[in-house]
Structures are given as C-alpha cells and as structure tokens.
Amino acid sequence: MDSSRNPKSEAWLRYAHELGLGPFHLDRPPRSASEPETAAQRSSPPVSFDLQGPATSSSSVLASSILGGRSLPGGQVGFSSDHASPRSSGVFTTEGISQRVSPNPLPPSLFEERIENDSLERIRTDIGPSCNRCKLHKARTNIVFGVGNPKAELVFVGEGPGHDEDVQAEPFVGRAGKLLTQMIEAMGLRRPDVYICNVVKCRPPENRLPEKDEITTCSPYLVRQLDVIKPKVICCLGACSAQTLLNTTQGISRYRGAWFDYRGAKLIATYHPAYLLRNPAAKGEVWKDLQKIMALLGLQPLKKK
Ligand code: URA
After folding, report:
1. Which H or E run includes 12?
2. Per-residue pLDDT tens digits for 236-247
3. % of the chain residues with pLDDT over 90
4. Which residues are within 8 A (CB) of 126 and not within 5 positions of it... i.e. 6 or more apart?
C-alpha cells in the first residue's frame, strides 16, 4: 500500500511522528490533492489551556549536558538521511529519565559563525519577496517570516505555516495558534512579548511535513533569526523544529522537557499545539515544560480570576 496516498495512513504517520515514533521514512511525497485538511483544520475544536493540569512543583531547570558537554552547532541543521545510525552523542536528563542522544558529525556549515551586523530586516531582504529556492514557493500565498518582539527573551519555533498562516502571512494564527497564544498568556506573557517563527517560511502543500530539502534550504534563515534575536530560551514546538535545531532524527518524546544549549540560548522542546488539540491529555506535560521556561525567565503564572 502506498501510505502517502492514503489520508488515514498519512494522519497516523503524522501522529506517530509527533509521538516520537518515527521517522519511518524521510522524503515524503506530496499528499494527494484530494486531502483537504490543513494544520488548523485537522485539529479538534479549540480548548482552553488547562492551568489545572498536573503541574510540577519543581520548576527546577535541568541544565543538561548537550552532546558531550558542548553546544550544538546551530548551523548544522538538517536531517540525517541515515536513520539507522544516530548522529549526536551525550547524555541529558529529563526528570528521572536519562537518555542518550546520538552523534552529530555533520560537516561545517556556512552558518556556524554568526553573520556580522545581521538583522531581521536583512534576513527578510535576503529571503526576498518572491523566494523560489525550494519547491514550497509553488503553492504558497505568502512568505511567513516571523512575528513578535525582535529582542524577545523567548522564541517559539514551529514547523511551517498552515493555511491560515499562509493567508495572513503570520505564524500561528489558526486554531493551533490560538492555543499557543493561550499558552503564552498562561505563562504571564503576551504574544507581542515573544517571537514566533517556523523552520520553513512557506506552507507545505496539503499540510504535509516539510521535506528534508526544504528544511535544508530554509532553516539557515531560522538560525540567523535566532542569532539576531539572541533569546534566553528557544521553545521548539513539535518534532520538526526540535529535530532541525538539535540535528537529530530521534523522536521528540525522547528529549521533550530537557534543556539543551543552543548557540548561547537554552533550548527546550515540547509538543506542538496542534498535537495538543488532538490530544488534550498531553497538556499537563506541556505545562510542565512551560513552567521550566518560566522558572528560567523568572515569570509568574497568570493568576486565575
Ligand atoms: N503550525 C506550525 O508549525 N506553524 C504555524 O505557523 C502554524 C501551525
């Protein structure tokens, strides 16, 4: 059976990917045009972010040793084409869990060094108004660069724009975006306080996952955005951004909630809000992760009225 042509199989693969059970394969052919769902559409109705979830009392920061005690080179973005041999190494901890991340011997990239006098405007200009560096340009309406405070202490990184984001040229404005806004507000912040962007700046058609070549082409702009903003904390929303920035093919559930060093920032991965819309029971885990970020940034949770 060609699962890429079967919406149910595709949905299952995406679900498995979010659970960290993948990857089963990397270069995913486009979905059939008949599949109607977008990132926003596939989610269940909006639900408020549950502050009463099983929150941790400990908001202790579990500073992990990353990849053998050195920072991940953010320029080393992209996925391994060799799933059989994990790439990065080093032990890190989540609460009570000790995991080994695989080795990381990618060749040096252009973006290991920071670009002098770089700015968000310059990055936007470099991308250009009609970027056609990858095949995502063919179906997009707008390039979705990123939005928020250019000096934010906290940056959220998603995978790629969905339908609503493509139309409005702003990340996380659909149903998953509304949940992200609630999460941000639950942390005692407002949306304009943080910066929000994606790994790929153009919508993958039919809401498929961004493909390896698209991520390789577009993620250097993400790395530059992060270098310019210099946040204290980067929160990866879902497996795509976590795998890209951590340069791993391992599933997010292996390292969700653990701290990593990333080019001078602390990086943490948590589940994607679209996943939470389909699996509200996972909100408690995400709230624990957000509490860790709050502890690191000295934020107080929103008081209930
Ligand atoms: N999902 C993402 O990963 N990014 C968006 O901007 C919207 C939905």
Report:
1. helix 7-19
2. 999 999 999 999
3. 61
4. 221
Task: Indicate the average pLDDT of the chain.
Answer: 75
Q: What gap in Å lies between CA 64 and CA 100, rounded to an integer?
A: 11
Neighbour-count burial for 158-180, b at 16+ CB within 10 Å, e otherwise: bbbbbbbbbebbbbbbbbbbbbb
The domains located in the chain, with CATH, are: 3-297 (3.40.470.10)
- Regarding the beta carbon of 162 and ligand 1, being less than 6 Å apart is answered yes
pTM above 0.85, yes or no: no
State whether the beta carbon of 210 lies less than 6 angstroms from ligand 1: no
Atom of ligand 1 nearest to the CA of 144: 6
- State how far the Cα of 111 lies from the Cα of 130, in Å rounded to an integer: 22
- Is the CB of residue 244 below 6 angstroms from any atom belonging to ligand 1? no
Atom 7 in ligand 1: residue holding the nearest Cα: 172
Q: Is 148 in the pocket of ligand 1 (CB under 6 A)?
A: no
Bond preceding residue 30 cis, omega within 30 of 0: no
CB 74 within 8 Å of CB 208 = no
- Cβ neighbours of residue 251 under 8 Å, at least 6 residues apart? 17, 19, 20, 21, 22, 239
From the alpha carbon of 165, which atom of ligand 1 is closest?
Answer: 6
Inter-residue contact 170 to 252 (CB < 8 Å): no
273 lines ligand 1 (CB under 6 A): no
Q: Is the CB of 161 under 6 A from ligand 1?
A: yes
